């Protein structure tokens, strides 16, 4: 599996496009700039199978409806945020004047309700429930590729904020401690903002965790 990190929108939120040898693709957190996503997928000659949301904050869903409509693919999100896509107060877009309020309601949603293993096409991965930054935050772990897409839970040298709707600091640190840090140290962490890191690096160097 290969993936492309694409910082998009005013907050430079990382969308990720995952592709495999069969030219299948998964799209994680299409936050803004749908044309950039379309161009990359066209260059790869890939066929998108699904959109995966680490959580439903506005900067992670800004291009969601446009992308979903173009490819007619399902959207995976946690049940705790099932109503956030069309609620600007919950997804946060009502409180940030530099963006338009998000009112999207994809026709096909697949609700995640617990930690589970999933197979989508040729992709096999595990969904970890990692709340704290938001109630429905999840992380997508691909053990064969030694990578976890952590959304806004764990960053290089930092952790997610908890001052937005539904955030909870204690829950965030429990998620990191119980779900992410037990992974092998070589596991790469692909966060929702900023650059890639590893579990081992964060165990050793992250000032919020040491």
From TrEMBL:
Its cofactor is Zn(2+). It comes from the Bacteria. SUPFAM superfamilies: Metallo-hydrolase/oxidoreductase. Transmembrane segments: none annotated. Residues 12-193 form the Metallo-beta-lactamase domain. InterPro entries: MBL_Glyoxalase_II, Metallo-B-lactamas, RibonucZ/Hydroxyglut_hydro. The keyword Metal-binding applies. Keywords: Hydrolase, Metal-binding, Zinc. The keyword Isomerase does not apply. One of its GO terms (molecular function) is hydrolase activity. CDD domains: metallo-hydrolase-like_MBL-fold. This is Hydroxyacylglutathione hydrolase. It comes from Pullulanibacillus camelliae.
